[in-house]
Specification:
The protein is an alpha/beta fold and 249 residues long. The protein has a single domain, classed as Vaccinia Virus protein VP39 (Rossmann fold, 3-Layer(aba) Sandwich). 36% of the residues lie in helices and 21% in strands. It has 8 helices and 7 strands, in the order αααβαβαββαβαβαβ. The chain has a 7-stranded mixed sheet with strand order 3-2-1-4-5-7-6. Helix 6 links the parallel strand 4 and strand 5. It is globular and about 45 Å long. 37% of the residues are buried.
Length: 249
């Protein structure tokens, strides 16, 4: 039997309580060698971002990516199911709303770029399809929808997850992996490209093993991110994440 996952509100309240030199150092290094850097590279590759680009992040968390995008365009918006996460994103200067990703509170074709990271992974096929349908719906014709999920080819992630489930220490809900999202996407009026990335990023999952030892986990994060900065180009090779890009025609 697996440990019941925390609600996302619990997760974000816990993260806001963390401080200290190592934690602050880790947050600083994350901008240069963690997932947020990879996401920024993916978005810039998929969409020419100008001061007039309308952007929505679905599942904005604490807003590290949305906050960086806000420096490029003032028209960045984030939604999250957690009030604490939405408030953290708002502190970066980004407009936010508290909502379920399956029912986005926006009109059709409201954004040029819509993206999410690690949101679809937490739903079954029905929920994932609903989220994807909503993301495509609010993307304008000619715009891009970019979905970043865990990649099924990342064996390290699966080994660690299976081990922690056996030890009743897994806290992250379903955390699904995918070989492709295309079968869950709307059929008409879109073009889909998919590729795996994040060869180095997969080693971030090792920190799950230190969940109950916070100091060890933070030290590992710092060491991992320093190495990631030095070897960053490796993340362009297949590894941890599946990047699905949808062009709405």
């Amino acid at each position: 039997m697996t440990q019941q996952p925390e609600t996302w509100e619990d997760v974000w309240k816990n993260r806001t309580s963390q401080n200290g030199l190592i934690h602050r150092a880790g947050r600083t290094l994350a901008a240069y060698g963690d997932l947020q850097k990879l996401v920024m590279e993916i978005l810039k590759r998929n969409c020419r971002i100008t001061e007039n680009t309308r952007i929505l992040e679905v599942g904005c968390g604490s807003g590290p990516v949305a906050g960086r995008l806000e420096r490029l365009t003032p028209m960045v918006y984030g939604v999250d199911i957690s009030p604490t996460a939405a408030e953290l994103t708002k502190e970066t200067g980004v407009g936010t709303a508290i909502t379920d990703a399956r029912e986005l509170p926006f009109k059709d074709e409201s954004f040029d770029l819509v993206y999410s990271t690690g949101v679809v992974d937490l739903s079954d096929d029905s929920g994932a399809a609903a989220i994807l349908r909503e993301m495509v719906r609010v993307t304008c014709t000619g715009g891009r929808t970019v979905i970043i999920t865990a990649w099924k080819g990342c064996r390290l992630h699966e080994v660690i997850k299976e081990y922690l489930i056996r030890k009743e220490r897994w806290r992250y809900g379903p955390k699904r992996t995918f070989t492709a999202l295309e079968p869950l996407l709307p059929i008409n009026g879109i073009r889909v490209r998919e590729r795996a990335m994040g060869a180095l990023f997969q080693f971030r999952f090792v920190s799950y093993l230190f969940e109950e030892r916070k100091l060890a986990r933070r030290l590992y994060h710092c060491a991992y991110m320093l190495l990631s900065i030095l070897l960053w180009p490796l993340n362009r090779l297949p590894g941890a994440v599946l990047v699905t890009t949808v062009e709405k025609e």
